[in-house]
Automatic annotation (TrEMBL):
Species assigned in the record: Brachybacterium equifaecis
Sequence segments annotated as region (Disordered): 299-318
Lineage: Bacteria, Bacillati, Actinomycetota, Actinomycetes, Micrococcales
InterPro entries xrefs: Carboh/pur_kinase_PfkB_CS, PfkB_dom, Ribokinase-like, Tagatose/fructose_Pkinase
Keywords of this entry: ATP-binding, Kinase, Nucleotide-binding, Transferase
Keyword Transmembrane helix: no
Stated name of the protein: 1-phosphofructokinase family hexose kinase
Family note: Belongs to the carbohydrate kinase PfkB family.
Cited PANTHER family: 1-PHOSPHOFRUCTOKINASE, 1-PHOSPHOFRUCTOKINASE-RELATED
The Carbohydrate kinase PfkB domain, residue ranges: 23-306
Length: 318
């Protein structure tokens, strides 16, 4: 089974202005969309739509409006109790092709609520499962929460991946000697955060076809104990580093509708490829195809398999 943890889930509201955003002005929506969100929820939706056995673990009160949205999606989930409400993230789409995100921090978790969330996750995990720890940490959780969970999940005999940023990512990077995950999915900015490199420069270099910096950084993380490192580079594609070396795949051209959830879709694609027994180049192709399909869909819409076109022939070894 594939299990995702969303420590700071959200209601994702996407509004389209159909015109440029004018600060201080009055706008009227041309479209308004409300979807369940949070990185782990997004990943779980992608996995579920591929027909694989999945469980999304998250904190939410019994009456929280997020839970009916998950039920409507048919997504198997386990909610640990919390007193606060799930946050709302607002994405504003405006022309020409501008996305503005306004994210709430999330309700703080008490010590008891944090312990209940950890218990809900670990009680669901069995040997042989794949566990993905995704996104920001809710206020009240320590920055090293993922470090502790990587160790706990490993002790249960499960595979574990992490996709996070800022302080939780720094904590993971500092603990690689004793708590390296089996999979890490940074974007260029997050890769720079880990290794003290300019992330914007890494992505700009990749857009020009200069991939040595990203390759070397991803391989350096792999050498420090991370089983596989998938670096997503936006429109420039992505790089995967594993025991077998490093590979690159470009992103197929697509009309960008919304970039929200594209990285999570790429993670879902990688997990699906792993579950199907694909080799690393094929997993990279599937991950990039999922991310590309996502940017062509509105709001936080996670692709279905019939919307995804992997191209293993586009993958090359670096």
């Amino acid at each position: 089974m594939i299990i995702t943890l969303t420590a700071n889930p959200s209601l994702d509201r996407t509004v389209d202005l159909g015109a440029p955003l004018n600060p201080g002005g009055v706008h009227r929506f041309t479209a308004d969309r409300l979807q369940p969100g949070g990185k782990g929820v997004n990943v779980a939706l992608g996995v579920q739509r591929a027909g694989l056995h999945v469980l999304a673990v998250l904190p939410a009160a019994a009456a929280d409006p997020l839970l009916p949205l998950l039920a409507a999606e048919g997504l198997p989930h386990r909610a640990s109790p919390m007193a606060g409400r799930v946050r709302t993230n607002l994405t504003v789409l405006s022309s020409p092709d501008v996305t503005t995100k306004l994210n709430e921090p999330g309700a703080p978790l008490s010590a008891q609520e944090a312990s209940a969330l950890e218990t809900a996750l670990l009680d669901a995990v069995s040997a042989g499962d794949d566990v993905m720890l995704s996104g920001s940490l809710a206020p009240g959780l320590p920055a090293d929460a993922y470090v502790r969970l990587v160790r706990a999940v490993r002790e249960k005999g499960a595979w574990v991946g992490v996709d996070t940023s800022d302080a939780p990512l720094a904590a993971i990077a500092a603990a690689l000697a004793s708590a390296a995950p089996d999979f890490l999915k940074p974007n260029a900015e997050e890769l720079g955060q880990i290794l003290g490199l300019p992330g914007e420069q890494l992505e700009a270099d990749a857009e020009r076809g200069e991939l040595d910096g990203v390759r070397d950084a991803a391989l350096a993380l792999h050498a420090r104990g991370v089983g596989a490192v998938l670096v997503t580079l936006g429109g420039a594609g992505g790089v995967l580093a594993t025991d077998g070396g490093a590979w690159y795949s470009p992103s197929a051209p697509v009309e960008v509708v919304s970039t929200v959830g594209a990285g999570d879709s790429a993670t879902a694609g990688y997990l699906i490829g792993r579950a199907l027994g694909e080799d690393p180049p094929a997993r990279l192709a599937r991950a990039l195809a999922y991310g590309t399909a996502a940017v062509g869909l509105p709001g936080t819409t996670i692709p279905r398999p019939d919307q995804v076109r992997p191209d293993p022939g586009a993958v090359r070894r670096l």
